[in-house]
Fold this protein.
Amino acid sequence: MTIPELPTPAEIDGRTLKGMPYHIMGTVQQTLLVDLAPGAMVYSDAGAMSWMSQSVRMNTHTQGGIGGLLKRAVSGATMFVVDFSAEGSAGHVAFSTDFPGKVLAFELDAGQTVIMHKHAFLCAEKTVNLDVFFTRRLGAGAFGGEGFVLQKLSGPGAVFAELDGDAIEYHLKEGEVMRVEPGHVAMFDASVTFDIEMIQGFTNILMGGEGLFLATLRGPGRIWLHSLTPSKMAHRIAQYIPSSSS
């Protein structure tokens, strides 16, 4: 039997953002492959890279100096970011999703900002500024759920995000509100107001199975939701793991 050769990155159907070619491969659990011309650069949180060609160089550093390091440490985001650049000749770097899901690619204009969950950020062009996003109310961060950290990305440049499961997009009108189980919040435009509110009704709290809090996203602006959350997947899997007493 003859085993067919895998296509090279150049043979895979791809697209271009801000002049940067990229390829999204796979269906159930996707991989992003970014083509880097000599001198071109993208960056990601530490630990996000899957593989890279020989000409690509890594540079691990803090984002925003000591102040940025402390801010990211307090928030629970990774303390370091990694730059990937091609030296001498073109190369490519790949980033795979952690869970079955989709990779989204979009462009930010100068001054345009999007807020996303820390697990949704995959990588971005070096011209994009990454910062930790603090909500106006402490409760939104404290009760958003374990590991619920938001990051702010400001253009210009190309941004790539990973969403668990399917990516559901809504366009909220002025004053329109969507109430969401916090784990399903992936990202939203900076014009959207984010908050956390307690579920109403005693029986809803005790028997609804939705936890104590819901995220509220108030328009205007776009929001993107995950259809899959790691916590719910872990809960389903745990039902089939034998207990130590059995």
